[in-house]
Design goal:
The chain has one helix at residues 21-30; strands at residues 15-19, 35-36, 50-53, 60-66, 71-78, 82-87, 98-104, 111-120, 123-125. It is mainly beta and 126 residues long. It has a domain at 49-116. Strands 2, 6, 7, 8 and 9 form a five-stranded antiparallel sheet that branches. The longest helix has 10 residues, at 21-30. The chain is globular, with a radius of gyration of 14 Å. The termini are close together. The relative contact order is 0.26. This is DOMON domain-containing protein. Keywords: Signal. One of its GO terms (molecular function) is copper ion binding. Residues 58-126 form the DOMON domain.
Length: 126
C-alpha cells in the first residue's frame, strides 16, 4: 500500500490547493515509480501571469508564472474527492507523463500528495 505524507497547515476541508507542482514533477523524474513528497512545502506567492479554468464551471483552475528557469503552478479545485494534474510531451498518450494526485484523508482531514509516472492505457506506475 502506498504511503503519502501530509502537507503542512491545511485549513480548508473542502478546497484542495496544490502549490509547487514544479517540485513534485522534478521529484518524479528522479525516482523510478512512486514518489511521495515528504519535505515541507512552503506557500508560493506570485502574481500569476496566466490562469485557465480547467472545467466549464470554473471549479478547477490552473494558475502559473514563468520566469527565466522555472514554471510555478497553483492548481485549485473545489472538491470533496481528489484532484489530478498531469504533464506529457505527447498530449494523446499517458505513457511517460508526470502525474500528481492530491486528496484529503476522510479520517484525519489531512491532505496527501502522490507523484507518479503514467504507464499507459490509463494506468499509473505505482
Amino acid at each position: 500500500m502506498a504511503r503519502c505524507a501530509p502537507l503542512t497547515k491545511y485549513n480548508r476541508p473542502y478546497r484542495l490547493l496544490v502549490v509547487a507542482l514544479a517540485l513534485a514533477i522534478h521529484t518524479a523524474h528522479e525516482a523510478a515509480g512512486l514518489t511521495v513528497l515528504t519535505s515541507k512545502i512552503e506557500p508560493v506567492h506570485h502574481r500569476w501571469s496566466r490562469s485557465e479554468a480547467m472545467d466549464p464551471n470554473g471549479l478547477y483552475t490552473l494558475d502559473w508564472h514563468v520566469d527565466q528557469k522555472d514554471i510555478v503552478f497553483t492548481a485549485t479545485a473545489n472538491t470533496r474527492g481528489f484532484m489530478g494534474l498531469g504533464f506529457s510531451h505527447r498530449s494523446e498518450h499517458m505513457a511517460g507523463s508526470d502525474l500528481v494526485l492530491v486528496w484529503v484523508d476522510d479520517r484525519t482531514g489531512k491532505p496527501n500528495v502522490l507523484v507518479s509516472k503514467g504507464a499507459g492505457l490509463g494506468r499509473l506506475r505505482v
